[in-house]
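Entry type: protein chain
Record version: 2
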Amino acid sequence: MKILCIGRNYAEHIAELQNETPDAPVIFAKPDTALLQRNQPFFLPDFSQDIHHEVELVLRICKNGKNIEEKFAPTYFDAIGLGIDFTARDLQSKLKSKGLPWELAKGFDGSAPISQEFKPVAAFPDLKNIAFRLEVNGEVRQQGNSGLMLHDFSKIISYISRFITLKMGDLIFTGTPSGVGPVRIGDQLAGFIGEEKMFDLAVK
């Protein structure tokens, strides 16, 4: 399976990091070794002093597809979960300043915690109105809604499939809202879709 991620998909997050608004979805990947499941703890790596949380809705691909038209894209995912795109911000900034790829800042081991349960698409009355949030030590740090995405689920799937064949079981992280920030040892991170808790993990 593949983990594909969308960068710069919420306007306020683009502004907070002082990035340019892209004309098309920004795509990057994480290896499967980045997955962190079953609320396992996240261990801060020793190569970064500035690991940031980025909470995101995650799509689960349910069938293979290439060059998918947007109107058919909704049939290619069957469930939605929640995850964190942990980012080594200091390493990312260093690599970007040199014009180098920044996969090391995004794809390190354990950098992609996901909810154990994924909610079936049929459970959502409106895919363009899915509220989600991240709480750190009981305090809301990030709040988002799928309706605020620059590129919606269908556009994301269609665009990726022009370049990369999607396969059953692939995961797509769909971008993070504003409010990203550092995590520290001892933090407890809880993610919610609506009022349903999707994950609850410790930083160690």
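Comment: The chain has one domain: 3-203.
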